[in-house]
């Protein structure tokens, strides 16, 4: 297995992106919007091509790092899932939490966003299993 492989990284990032679309769309869109303090007008502003494009690029970076670690360690399938969810809970959630403490964001917003990262990383890990 190569340290970098384009198809697993693209597929993992795509899985994460799809989770985000569902998470912030039909599942928690209105709750997230309320917790974030955003009006309907606020949500409509901004260049969505840039926002979605950068989101996917950031998810590609996450996928590249995780794939690299999986490839370097030769992780077993259950370890791949542990690493994926471990990234979400051990690195991403605390980072979000620290920012939200200083930004005085709500616990509800934290829960919604960390849930997204947890499910998104689990989806990425699950996709990576298809390439092992």
TrEMBL record:
<keyword id="KW-0812">Transmembrane</keyword>
<keyword id="KW-1133">Transmembrane helix</keyword>
<feature type="transmembrane region" description="Helical">
    <location>
        <begin position="109"/>
        <end position="131"/>
    </location>
</feature>
<feature type="transmembrane region" description="Helical">
    <location>
        <begin position="48"/>
        <end position="70"/>
    </location>
</feature>
<keyword id="KW-0472">Membrane</keyword>
<feature type="transmembrane region" description="Helical">
    <location>
        <begin position="6"/>
        <end position="27"/>
    </location>
</feature>
<feature type="transmembrane region" description="Helical">
    <location>
        <begin position="76"/>
        <end position="102"/>
    </location>
</feature>
<protein>
    <recommendedName>
        <fullName>DUF1761 domain-containing protein</fullName>
    </recommendedName>
</protein>
<dbReference type="Pfam" id="PF08570">
    <property type="entry name" value="DUF1761"/>
</dbReference>
<dbReference type="InterPro" id="IPR013879">
    <property type="entry name" value="DUF1761"/>
</dbReference>
